[in-house]
Amino acid sequence: EMRSSITSSSSRRRSEKEVVMFPFMAQGHIIPFLALALQIESKKSFSITFVNTPLNIRKLRSTLPHNSSIRLLEIPFSSSDHGLPPNSENTDVLPYPYVIRLLEASTSLKPAFQKILQDRKPLCVIADLFFGWTASVAKELGIFHVVFSGCSGFGLACYCSLWLNLPHRKINDGSDGYFSLPDFEEANKIHMSQLPLNISEANGEDAWSKFQFQNLSHWFNSDGMLFNTVSGFDQLGLMYFRRKFNRPVWPIGPVLLPSESRASVGKQTEFTSMVCREWLDSKPLNSVLYVSFGSMNTISPSQMMELATALDRCNKNFIWVVRPPIGFDINSEFKAEEWLPEGFEERVKGRGLLVQSWAPQVEILSHNAVSAFLSHCGWNSAIESLSNGVPMLAWPMAAEQFFNAVLLEREVGVCVEVARGKMCEVRHQDLVDKIELVMSNRDKGSEMRKKASELKDMIEIAVKDDDEEISGLKGSSSKALDDFFCAAMAYETEQYSMK
Ligand code: UDP
């Protein structure tokens, strides 16, 4: 009975029940939230209110499809009140040291958010993993609350465990740099070189430690977690959260943004899309390496030289999204050739396509000419790659990317790590060897490709939906989303009966 009442009716009739969604102000967070909002809108009969600060809402207005019924709601915020530059409401316009300040400033949204919930009385709140405090607000008002993670279960489990325990602080100088996670032994040994900068510098007293500790302690007030992942390959991490917080965890991924919305969220142009498509169309099946490090991270000038040399030497087709290197003066104009070996573009002509700044990544990954993806392992990139059956070369750089790489390499077997961190020394020969290994049609290369294609099938099955439930074919992710809404409705019923 309950099931049928939460699936969307073809007449698009909306029930009164409302879902409030509230992502942190960063593209890497807003994108999966928006993808989830659009998915809920298309499949379920709830009204959706998407909360964010004024400038982000303004940008989102031009992103939402015209016929969307998602309500965009501004929560008042002025960056200059918080020691941030004026009009800076998204990490994409803030230098890294300001990110923690934006996080700290976000806790000041509490009274305004409380008011929103009081006024709207929604069925549930789906909040960002950096907005732990929203759980306490929702709890006080008797509203069902979940944290939605755009990270993998495994990656986030390592990341949370590190912040909660700071285990790397306890190893002594004479050790080999390896340590384990006290509450997540399943992750095996972690090495110091796998720590993002803010964790390796954390001492429990710094701004990041304080923020994370506070934030995570609020999660105990939440009623569960949604993950943009698939239960079939991410069990260990999901289990960590079930155990740690003693709450249900619903793996509902992959939620991916439809291509119409992708174009306006990013900075891609129709022209770049056309150039990439035509270029890929001219290349043989499984012959192209795609190289990109996401929307925020870049490599150092010397790493850029090594990578270019590797691409020059390995004689493979490639698309490389070239972004200004670390230390680049953002006030000057970026000219890729000034940062590449002399004559590089000439030598790779015909087999190498350089795209400056932003490429149509999902279109590229879904093209059958693409054979492998050299990636920083941001979870959106990873899950886009897996959804298209493309094996990966990992160069993790920040946050939980190091542990996404571990999941993909050790647990899933579709990835080889080639380098670690923004400061590491990479040698071009090393890159050449690993690129050849992964792109080869023999041995490990063909094994990984086979595994990646099995994963693609697994993902397709996980998101199977519609009336297939009747025949017992509803996929694990679709079922998890149903289960989540059932839990929210049951919670609401219980609240009423207590009154
Ligand atoms: N992306 C893209 N073109 C680019 C770079 C990134 O379309 O040139 C998209 C990519 O498809 C993904 C997102 O931006 O959806 C990046 O998210 P991810 O979690 O991989 O990394 P982040 O940018 O958050 O580090």
UniProtKB/TrEMBL annotation:
Supply the enzyme class, top level.
transferase
Q: Which UniProt keywords apply?
A: Glycosyltransferase, Transferase
Q: What is its EC number?
A: 2.4.1.-
Cell division is among the record's keywords = no
Please give the Gene Ontology molecular function terms for this protein: UDP-glucosyltransferase activity
Q: Give the matching Pfam families.
A: UDPGT (PF00201)
Entries under InterPro entries matching the protein:
UDP_glucos_trans (IPR002213), UDP_glycos_trans_CS (IPR035595)
Homology family? Belongs to the UDP-glycosyltransferase family.
What protein name does the entry list?
Glycosyltransferase
| Organism for this UniProt entry | Ficus carica
